[in-house]
Amino acid sequence: MIELPLDPASSFPEALADAARLTDALLEHHLVVPDGPEARVVKAMRYSALAPGKRLRPFLALASAQLFSVARRSALQAAAAVELVHAYSLVHDDLPAMDNSDLRRGRPTCHKEFDEATAVLAGDALLTFAFEVLAQPDTHGDPAVRCELVTALAQAAGDRGMVGGQMIDLLAENDPSLDIGAITRLQRLKTGALIAFSCEAGAILGKATAEARLALRGYAHDLGLAFQIADDLLDVEGSAAETGKPVGSDAAAGKATFVSILGVERARSQAELLIDQAVSHLDLFEEKAELLRQAAHFVINRRA
Amino acid sequence: MIELPLDPASSFPEALADAARLTDALLEHHLVVPDGPEARVVKAMRYSALAPGKRLRPFLALASAQLFSVARRSALQAAAAVELVHAYSLVHDDLPAMDNSDLRRGRPTCHKEFDEATAVLAGDALLTFAFEVLAQPDTHGDPAVRCELVTALAQAAGDRGMVGGQMIDLLAENDPSLDIGAITRLQRLKTGALIAFSCEAGAILGKATAEARLALRGYAHDLGLAFQIADDLLDVEGSAAETGKPVGSDAAAGKATFVSILGVERARSQAELLIDQAVSHLDLFEEKAELLRQAAHFVINRRA
User: Fold this and answer.
1) pTM of the model
2) Which residues on B lie below 8 Å from A125 (Cβ)?
3) What is the set of domains in chain A, with CATH numbers?
4) What is the mean pLDDT of residues A259-276?
5) Is residue A79 over pLDDT 80?
6) Which of A75, A253, B75, B82 is geometrically suited to a Cys-Cys bond with A5, CB 3.0 to 4.6 A?
7) What's the helix, strand, coil split of chain A in %, to 5?
């Protein structure tokens, strides 16, 4: 009998905590500090990948894999890979040349704790290692499945995904002419693509039907946008203690966001609408998708 | 009949030019500039990956693949992937926080031509895309082979390879206590690992025997070190017009190199010794390895 990624009887907060604990344990296992002077870059990788965080993306990978009865070890490899890519993106986005952030998840950013060169290299190595993890035989017995994961992650993370979104975001700073369509596209690339990969990874590992994949893609698409709107709302309404980063930074940077265009109230109802829509995509999976449904509601009610 | 990667009757300079032309054509084909504002990062990727250069690593991938009668398209995919990773490493290494170089291959570095944020993102996307290329069905019909390539490239490029070497290099700056063993290890990681992957890729694509792989690894190992010693010699003896970058930059930075420790004459004979040794590893392949033999002699006689 295979061991499922998560306990199907658990509540979402329990499952999220389990996902974080299991993913961190695997990352701990993978990121071994070597003896030589290059230890410094591995310490910076560990500092960033094991920083406190919700581990929402690993949870999505595990909960999606659960729909197709994927074995725990397989699902965890995908969860670890997606968290490695998420961690790399935060390290590079925080750099002085990019968003120039000093604080992340309540702690100094990687380049503040180490230095800028080490942060560039740590990000590079986290990204590289994500692909190594996916290609490992532990991820799936069928190498065609592992190749499909590598392809999907590269497309989600690269210039047609996350990197492209970050490029647009940098160019859009101080551009108040950005409309809702442009912001939606920006966020679909910048945060949506990796969230979609997290869900897609479970479907790839489970060799899901085209119908099931389409449903999960729809769920992830709506969830990703709602997640971003919630993020924008937190930047306006949250406290630094809760979010672990400076508040009001978007407005201070003159950035167009969902909230700056729609206003707080309309942004909030838009997010709620998206969550209802996300949940409706899961009907196909019946009670098996309960954790994913709970996750959707959590995303817009979170305080950090 | 399969079309071989290179014309077996060509001389090394012809084959090197062919490798560059074929690899650039494939990179041109792969790196399509999109319509949206994210076009900027793809232009920076093209600027860096298609910059004038010898394309020695693609040549090594093609010439190694040739030993095992690998089809041209397969070999070219591996050649493109290794050049993408090489280009990414140059873009990030040139950043102000790293080596802070303004000139590369005779042109402004990526962050000078674009800006620092775009250069970070372009490097990230080049690295990401390399893995996408390897995972494409065009690379090899057997997904197990593609997974093996992804694994080998990730190990060569990451913290246990190139990134680790660059970390050591940054820490070693202004450290005159570095001995020859430490420099050898540094260079084996920083430049040797990717050169070794270039040769190994051909063997992986050709499902070579363990004996053949071992021979190629020995060749690549010695070639990589000789290549680096030649690079150090060029920094002392070359001209900026020939090398496309400032001369004497190692000495100015107080960097320990093979030349600063061994002196010019002993460094040169060490490089010659390594090349003889590299060539001797190729005996196994008889006349089929003629291009690789010529490449080895080229490496220490190059002027740029």
Assistant:
1) 0.95
2) 158-159, 163-164
3) 12-301 (1.10.600.10)
4) 94
5) yes
6) A75
7) 70, 0, 25
